[in-house]
Amino acid sequence: MALSTPERPGFRAFVNTVQPLYKIPSEPTTTKLLEEKYELLRGKVSKMMNAAEHISLTMDIWTHKYTVASYLGVTAHFTKGALTKSVELGTRLLEDRKDHGTLQKVMHQLLKVEWQLDYEKVRSVVTDGGGNIKLAAKNEFGEEKHISCISHRLNLIGQKAIGNQAFLPSEQPGQGPPTDLPDDEDDLDDGVVEEGAEQPAPGGALTLRGLIMKVKRTVRFFKQSEVAASRLKELQKVEQGKKDGQCLRLIQEVKTRWNSCYEMLQRYLLLAPLVVRVVLDLQRQRISRAKPPDIISPAEEEILKEVKDLLAPLHRATQEVSSEKLVTLSKCIPVINSLRTEIEKYSATTVISKQIKEILKALLRDAFDSIEMVPVYAAATLLDPRFKTFGFRQDLTTPRRVGNAVTFVGDLVKKKMRAAQVQAQAEQALGREENPAAEEPTEPDDFWSSLDMQVERQSSLHSGQDTAGGIPVQLRAYLDSPPVKRKDYPNPLIAWEPLKGELRHVYAVAQEYLSMLANSVPSERLFSHAGMISNQKRTRLAAKRLEMLVFLRSCDNDLWFE
């Protein structure tokens, strides 16, 4: 809603009808009130982030549809017990080139200078595959904190599988333990698939992209022909008993999002019998201005069905890891393993679907073969009570990969234990200094003093560890207990709440790793919000004002009305 809304005649007439005694504020007054609210909420959010122990950031670059101006979007995410808080920190105008140096300066100004964010609390920074923003984030926060968006990686795999991008499988083995997943290509350019592309010559080899283009032309025909669309709607009413609001329409593919291709094929195959009847009727009657498309044959339809079934696990995996509200980093390894299993066990019968199956297997191998060796992914999976060691791929190398994860998490737990021990000793020393009379002198027992000193020294040295493997007792107890049911706990942080007293050091590490995001979807949501605010009628909205409105929109009701 525009800031000038209070001065519009329709709005004033509505308010005067509902509440005649209410004095409607002017546009300057409304703007001033929003600015005051912005400063107030900004202070509250800043205090919340200062109180948070761990913060995860997501970043992305957006180009305004109407002004062609570029913006850097930044969102922050942190946990408060079992609850996840999110806020859109900035939509900052990029006035210079979008190279990594410029982006890093903007990041530093926004987060370090203006928000005074403590970088020690930042545990992860998620970006897409753009080389400029990845390098800027790594330089500003440290390479070990950067995470590549897994949703973009899966999107790129889908694009290559359906033929929107060239595919060259890598045969290079990994060199040593990775710190992150392999680099992927930059994001795809926006655009539409050329209508003349991938049309085989008469007698030429049939390709998946050629079949997809055939479906696209059919969908475009039904989008452009009112006669065809109404005939399809009537057939659904007559033969399927649907009402106006229940009738389905065909879905068109968008090149930059592979899942739109999957949804297009899924919807087409669902309506295929009716679509074919409509097209044949229009070809025979010749009452449509547009030329009806070629009919997709039963053999071609069978190919599309198998391709759709092969792509279904990839579509499900994308949905699983693209959540904005739920924990996602710990799901990456189990989701990828489930995806690879589903594709492997699918029995393809056509030549094209067999090719797609092999392409998907190769793409997933290249992109994710080393994911279980990346510490952040492995630790998050291990610390998720729904998965633990069962989330890892089960084969001959499982003990080594799980062992690496257990050792990594065990070292983190030991650090927490040592820090807690040092703090407890400091508090005891401080208490003795403040209240020396509280200590009652006791006579030393020389008979047992030597043994007592040895026991105390060994207890301090091995406190909280298994004597056999050096694994903290709390971590061992956590791993030995059975996993909780995944369906009962969509949010693993809730499953941790009853354990935080008994396993407090493991709980602290779990809070750190389960709070990390695996995708940059929140930044994309931010730009959707920005696009709705700065629409075609508000292209003159100042960048500073846009950033203020986007931030205010992201604040929860409990912040607004606290």
TrEMBL record:
The keyword Chloroplast does not apply. It is found in: Nucleus. Pfam families: Dimer_Tnp_hAT. Residues 181-197, 436-446 have a biased composition (Acidic residues). One of its GO terms (cellular component) is nucleus. The keyword Transport does not apply. Keywords: Ligase, Metal-binding, Nucleus, Zinc, Zinc-finger. Residues 167-204, 424-447 are annotated as: Disordered. Residues 475-554 form the HAT C-terminal dimerisation domain. GO terms for molecular function: ligase activity; protein dimerization activity; zinc ion binding. InterPro entries: HATC_C_dom, RNaseH-like_sf, ZnF_BED_domain_contain. This is E3 SUMO-protein ligase ZBED1. It comes from Frankliniella fusca.
